[in-house]
TrEMBL record:
<dbReference type="GO" id="GO:0006218">
    <property type="term" value="P:uridine catabolic process"/>
</dbReference>
<dbReference type="GO" id="GO:0009166">
    <property type="term" value="P:nucleotide catabolic process"/>
</dbReference>
<feature type="domain" description="Nucleoside phosphorylase">
    <location>
        <begin position="78"/>
        <end position="325"/>
    </location>
</feature>
<dbReference type="InterPro" id="IPR035994">
    <property type="entry name" value="Nucleoside_phosphorylase_sf"/>
</dbReference>
<feature type="binding site">
    <location>
        <position position="241"/>
    </location>
    <ligand>
        <name>substrate</name>
    </ligand>
</feature>
<feature type="binding site">
    <location>
        <begin position="162"/>
        <end position="165"/>
    </location>
    <ligand>
        <name>phosphate</name>
    </ligand>
</feature>
<dbReference type="Pfam" id="PF01048">
    <property type="entry name" value="PNP_UDP_1"/>
</dbReference>
<dbReference type="InterPro" id="IPR010059">
    <property type="entry name" value="Uridine_phosphorylase_euk"/>
</dbReference>
<protein>
    <submittedName>
        <fullName>SFRICE_022059</fullName>
    </submittedName>
</protein>
<feature type="binding site">
    <location>
        <position position="118"/>
    </location>
    <ligand>
        <name>phosphate</name>
    </ligand>
</feature>
<dbReference type="GO" id="GO:0005829">
    <property type="term" value="C:cytosol"/>
</dbReference>
<comment type="similarity">
    <text>Belongs to the PNP/UDP phosphorylase family.</text>
</comment>
<dbReference type="GO" id="GO:0004850">
    <property type="term" value="F:uridine phosphorylase activity"/>
</dbReference>
<feature type="binding site">
    <location>
        <position position="243"/>
    </location>
    <ligand>
        <name>substrate</name>
    </ligand>
</feature>
<dbReference type="InterPro" id="IPR000845">
    <property type="entry name" value="Nucleoside_phosphorylase_d"/>
</dbReference>
Length: 333
């Protein structure tokens, strides 16, 4: 079996030699699991029950396989970019329209999920920009439907990004973190999901070569630091992240600081609420994926997000710049 990597950044010693979903590497990284990617790069959904459906209703996207011509609508998508808020993902779509010099600049974008009202999804050329809400349950709901959407649309080898906000660890506020692994609240690099009464542990590992490529495109002229490191995905914003400012707190400040320092010692550079599940589900689907987050504060210095709204707005554009540069690089090669 030969390598089928369509490299975004040319090979060099600092980069892994293959993407994790390379057919040459799949059996080594996923022993005993068939590759969920067809020879032409389209996604092969492993759920055999789907074949028995006359129509698959993607309820939260307001789409289905009968009413809509999904290959015509989405077959050219190469990048799926997801983030928490509807506003952020509309702004990202508008930004990518400028970066890729696409037509109809300034024209109002259409929310393609308008019939469901739960999320927002915008398409600009080969980029799909989707909001996922806050936390793992909200994110995985739309992520799984978007994975099915890409399969039904016959999109070839799409690359997924999560563009998010987070709290940093021992790095300056306003820094960007490119995740090298997801860590759950029990400090394991897995996404733990109860299925039929039993907990399944799925490896929470983004594509190594992709996060290395993204980091390699950083520039000293950016005006901010870009770091590679682990990302803890908590199931709760307050106690789950060791905060002292929630309505409940049953530990001391010393306990909190010891916990945060232990995370730093493990190579964790930021904390958010989606990384383990996003990494695990894209990996299971054989999809290249990467998480790029801005840090609003250094959690070792406090818990409250204190910068001004103008500063936070400017900072939120930084992951967009990093991801946009990678997408632009793909279309330059």
């Amino acid at each position: 079996m030969s390598c089928n990597c369509d490299y975004v950044v040319p090979n060099k010693e600092s980069l892994a030699p293959h993407y994790d979903n390379c057919r040459l590497m799949w059996d080594e990284l996923h022993p005993g699991i068939p590759c969920p990617k067809n020879a032409d790069g389209t996604i092969m959904l492993p759920n055999k029950h789907l074949a028995g459906l006359d129509v698959d209703i993607l309820y939260h996207l307001g789409l289905d396989t009968k009413t809509y011509d999904l290959p015509a609508m989405f077959g050219d998508v190469k990048f799926v970019c997801m983030g928490g808020t509807k506003v952020r993902m509309r702004e990202f779509a508008e930004y990518m329209r400028e970066v890729l010099d696409l037509p109809n600049k300034g024209q109002k974008l259409v929310n393609l999920t308008k019939h469901s009202q739960r999320y927002a999804m915008y398409k600009v050329g080969p980029v799909l920009s989707v909001s996922h809400g806050i936390g793992i349950p909200s994110m995985t709901t739309v992520l799984q439907e978007v994975i099915k959407l890409m399969s039904y649309a016959k999109a070839k080898d799409p690359i997924f990004f999560r563009i998010g906000t987070s709290g940093g660890l021992s790095i300056p506020a306003g820094s960007v973190v490119v995740s090298s692994f997801g860590l759950n609240g029990n400090l394991e690099q897995t996404y733990d999901i109860p299925i039929l009464g039993k907990t399944r542990k799925l490896p929470a590992l983004p594509d190594q070569r992709v996060y290395q490529e993204v980091h390699s495109l950083g520039s000293a002229d950016d005006g901010f630091g870009t770091y590679i490191g682990g990302t803890m995905g908590a199931d709760d914003f307050y106690r789950g992240q060791g905060r002292l400012d929630g309505p409940f707190c049953d530990y001391t400040e010393a306990d909190k600081m010891a916990f945060l320092r232990s995370l730093t010692g493990m190579g964790v550079r930021n904390i958010e609420m989606e990384a383990p599940a996003f990494s695990a589900y894209t990996r299971e689907a054989g999809i290249r994926a990467c998480i790029v987050c801005i840090t609003f504060l250094d959690r070792l210095q406090g818990d409250q997000v204190t910068p001004s709204k103008a500063t936070l707005t400017e900072w939120q554009r930084r992951p967009m710049l990093v991801v946009g540069r990678y997408i632009a690089q793909y279309f330059k090669k």
